[in-house]
Design a protein that fits this description.
The chain is built from no helices and 18 strands. The chain is mainly β. Strands 2, 3, 4, 6, 7 and 8 form a 6-stranded antiparallel sheet that branches. A hairpin with a 7-residue loop joins strand 11 and strand 12 (about 140-145).
């Protein structure tokens, strides 16, 4: 129920008797529901007026512009209808996600949330984003229809540096300015393996072994925190 933005118009071919323009919100016809300008505020040399953001429409549906001078306003006005854009105001709650993809720098799994109890606009979808800084919507991962309370992130979805997931709400006018946020831990098993493994048993007791196991580490150990050693029947 609020508007904001530029109104523009083409001036009359003759402005000899025009000193300024008057701008109104109108509920239709010549109704002047709400005056947006004061006398002389928009001089004849100017063919636009910026309506401040969050200006109440008071039931209006049109913008009227009158030519005016010290004696009054023109008998007719030019007008333009407007559509009151309204982004979703609601936010999901209880947002949760655990990465199920075992590759580093990739995620997959179910994002879940609690949906709002009601909506003030005709919402169409929930939107899942990846975020590098946990506040900016870095990239869109996918959408799911209103009525659902989860979204399956496909396997092998690249994190692209994201550390958090954001979930917003979408309608025909765009995406909500607010969103819910959840940080995630990127599960990733090592992709590199050791080589040149060697072992010589130095335990002389039957059925038992002992001694040093040695190996050559991978050239890249950035995703390795420790080594695990097992016995295997091969």
């Amino acid at each position: 129920y609020m508007i904001g933005g530029n109104v523009t118009w083409v001036p009359p071919s003759s402005v000899a008797d025009v000193s300024y323009y008057s701008v109104y919100i109108s509920a239709g016809g010549s109704d002047r529901t709400s005056q947006l300008t004061t006398a002389g505020q928009v001089p004849v040399s100017q063919n636009y007026f910026f309506i401040p953001i969050s200006t109440p429409i008071d039931g209006g549906t049109h913008i009227l512009v009158y030519s005016a001078n010290g004696y009054g306003e023109s008998s007719t006005a030019v007008f333009v209808p407007f559509s009151d854009k309204a982004l979703p105001a609601e936010v999901v709650t209880s947002l949760a996600f655990v990465d199920q993809d075992q590759q580093l720098n990739e995620i997959s799994g179910i994002v879940s949330w609690q949906s709002p109890a009601a909506y003030t606009t005709n919402t169409t979808a929930f939107v899942v984003f990846g975020s590098v800084d946990c506040s900016t919507r870095t990239f869109e991962i996918g959408t799911t229809a209103i009525g659902n309370s989860n979204f399956q992130i496909p396997s092998n979805t690249a994190t692209r540096g994201a550390k958090c997931l954001l979930v917003g709400i979408r309608n025909s006018d765009g995406d909500s300015t607010r969103h819910a946020t959840v940080a995630f831990y990127d599960v990733g098993v090592p992709s590199s393996v050791v080589s040149s493994i060697q072992f010589t048993d130095t335990d002389t007791t039957a059925g038992r072994i002992g001694g040093n196991v040695t190996w050559t580490p991978p050239s890249n150990v950035s995703d390795i925190s420790h080594y695990m050693i097992y016995l295997s029947p091969c």
